[in-house]
Amino acid sequence: MKNFKLLLIGLLLSTSFTMFAQQTVKGVVKEKSSGEALPGVSVMIKGTNKGTETDFDGNFTIEKVASGDTLVFRYLGYANKEIVLTTDFNLVVSLEASTEQLDEIVIVGYGTTTVKDATGSVEAITAKEFTKGNIVTPENLLSGRVAGVNINTSGAPGSGSEIRIRGGSSLNASNNPLIVIDGLPMSGTAGGSRGVLASINPNDIESFSVLKDASATSIYGSRGANGVIIITTKKGRTDYSLDYDYQMGFGEVVDRVSVFNGNDFRNLVSQRRPSDVGLLGSANTNWQDEILQKSVSTQHNLTARGQIFNRIPTRLSVGFSSIEGNILTSQYDRATVSLSMNPSFFDDHLKINLNYNRAFEDNRFADAGQVGAALRYDPTQPVRDASSPFGGFYQHITRDANGVIVQNGTRNPVAALLQNNNVSDVFRHYGNLNIDYKFHFLPELKATLNVGFDKSVGEGTSFNPLNSPASYTDLFVGNDSAYRNEVLNESLDGYLNYVNTFGKTKLDAMVGYSYQTFNGNGNSTGNRRNFNDQGATSYVNTPVVLIGFLARTNITFNEKYLLTLNYRRDGTSRFGPQNRWGNFGGAALAWRVSDEDFLKDNEVISELKLRAS
Predict the structure, then answer these.
(1) I need a labelling partner for 218 at 20 to 30 A (CA). Which of 28, 304, 403, 452 fits?
(2) Which residues 6+ apart lie within 8 Å of 109 measured at CB?
(3) Average pLDDT score over residue span 435-460
């Protein structure tokens, strides 16, 4: 009996010790050189699937850890760090920039390379380098981050940007770069959308690769003539996390163009055209203040990551954005859902990446031309006039019996915005399935198959009432029009990639095939007023097929001398049989001068590469 009591006491003590040993570890992760917090750092308990990520301020928390557990910190571009927990469960962790950054993977067309081995002009931007702030569309993550890339935005909420890589190359054709998302070339979107990237949630973006010169872009044929932007989205992971991100932004156009106020304008007219003083009003209206508004925007992002069925890393993200524009009536709302599943099988010989995205856009467009009207309109007149036949808005009219609008006068800009209801709804879903297989009998050879689609449906209406000054001519006609269209892009890519080293020579060769189709249809109605009905029009585009045969060879000798050769032969159904095919080639040479003996130990020059393409 005595021995039993001793055993029971021992079990209770050991159980209590085990319970008290399970604690919560908290900490912050910073960059060692600058002391800045690092968001998105992976923090894992070594040997387990348990872990988390640092938040926007670099903070992390993991529950139920014990003394002796090892925490592993990983972040792209920084050296991994391991910390063994002792009695300190409040950590401050500093990560150093990796000395092996030259070996970082860079996404290029139909494959990857490393910073060290890149011969073309390629620049990669990851999450830690993105532009910060109230980012609504993905391209603005790149603003000011890549040399030779200029991004200009109109300022309307969610509006598409003009992207130029090393300037324009055409007077009449498009100068926009080709956008590729997870291997799927994007070809545009349905009418009513604010831009090709407007439906993509920036929170889902992992990295950008910008291909700038002829050698880097030639693998995409003529479509790469204006440069290529390759977007990689975030993938699933084995560690479990649930993140909620909320942003609120406020906007205001602070500066105003200096124009006469009502009193100054009356004084000017009385001095120079005293006979016209009777045409002026008694108000003192600042039309810029009337059409510009303070804006409020909110963004919500909820992301869940983890492993399902004990082997499929998965990421599910839901986002909601509500963005007000600074021009009266301008509004942009977006809802997005994205799913990524990334399992691997057969000791990582077979890797599968499945990505699917859905987006809903609701837009109300404001006429930016009314900014100019606000600069020109009479500051002595009020915004509203109870006796006005134009829905209570003041408008210049002649003094004859018909009260016709003064044709060479500006229309009331506030009325033009409030009475015009120009709205659209856009649904877009796109995704791809990517399968990589590294042959067991020849591990140097890998086969890749990528199948994807991008479909968008847009519909919208534009309505001006009968008594709108903006649509008034010699009769009260108003405007009521509508449209609906669909765009479908489907693609299939397959290629083989062989990488092997022979002595001092490394060979990286790729051959592939690409097939893509483009379809579109829609309808529109003109003015649907009974007395001015312009009827309806419908269209069905003839499907366009683009076929490409492609090849690339990278040869590296002695890790210092690099050669890249690209070739693509494209055929399109747009042209007749005699002009259907085109050949596109590129070549690049690079010399890693800093690896030569005369610079190898130089303390001033750490990395020097000469390139020609």
Answers:
(1) 452
(2) 180, 211, 216, 217, 219, 220, 224, 228, 230
(3) 95
Q: Read off the tokens for 589.
A: 């040479």
End-to-end CA distance of the chain: 88
Residues 81, 48 contacting (CB under 8 angstroms): no
pLDDT at 366: 94
pLDDT digits (tens, 9 = 90+) for 11-33: 444 443 334 456 889 999 998 87
- Quick one: tokens of 297? 């925007």
Name the pTM for this structure: 0.80
pLDDT tens-digit map of 353-365: 999 999 999 999 9
List the one residue out of 539, 536, 534, 537 whose CA is nearest residue 522: 539
Q: What angle do CA 315, 319, 322 make, to 5 degrees?
A: 170
DSSP class of residue 49 equals S
The whole-angstrom separation of Cα 305 and Cα 237 is: 6
Cβ–Cβ < 8 Å for 298, 322 = yes
pLDDT at 181: 94
Residues 381 and 397: their CA atoms lie apart, in Å, by 12
* Secondary structure string (H, E, C) spanning 172-200: CCCCCCEEEECCEEECCCCCCCCCCCCCC
Q: Which residues contact 453 (CB under 8 A, 6 or more apart)?
A: 184, 430, 431, 432, 488, 489, 490, 491
Task: Name the nearest CA neighbour of 190 among 451, 492, 425, 461.
Answer: 425
Domain boundaries, the chain: 2-95
Which segments of 419-563 does DSSP mark as H helices, in order?
none
Give the pair of three-digit tokens for residue 15.
């159980």
Residue keyed to tokens 């097939």: 515
Those residues with Cβ within 8 angstroms of residue 508's Cβ, 6 or more apart along the chain or in another chain: 113, 497, 498, 499, 553, 554, 555, 556
CB 321 within 8 A of CB 297: yes
Whether the Cβ atoms of residue 287 and residue 414 lie closer than 8 Å to each other: yes
Phi, psi of 507 (to 5 degrees): -115, 130
Residue 381 structure tokens? 């007149």
Q: Radius of gyration of the chain from Cα atoms?
A: 31
CB 81, CB 93: distance < 8 Å: yes
pLDDT tens readout for residues 574-610 = 999 899 999 999 999 999 998 888 887 787 887 889 9
What pLDDT digit, counting tens, does each position of 149-179 carry?
Answer: 898 888 888 887 889 998 887 888 788 999 9
At residue 304, the pLDDT reads 95
What Cα–Cα distance (Å) separates residue 546 from each residue in 163, 187, 561? 24, 12, 35
Band (pLDDT 50/70/90 cuts) for residue 8 is very low
CA atoms within 13 A on the CB side of 92: 3
CA 247, CA 298: separation in Å to the nearest integer? 6
Strand order across the 23-31 sheet: 59-65, 23-31, 90-95
How confident is the model over 511-564, as pLDDT tens digits? 999 999 999 887 877 666 544 455 577 777 788 999 999 999 999 999 899 999
Domain spanning 2-95: CATH 3.40.50.300: no
Residue showing tokens 């150093």: 96
Burial class (CB within 10 angstroms; exposed 0-12, middle 13-18, buried 19+) of 156: buried
Q: Take residue 75 and report the two structure tokens written for it.
A: 């972040």
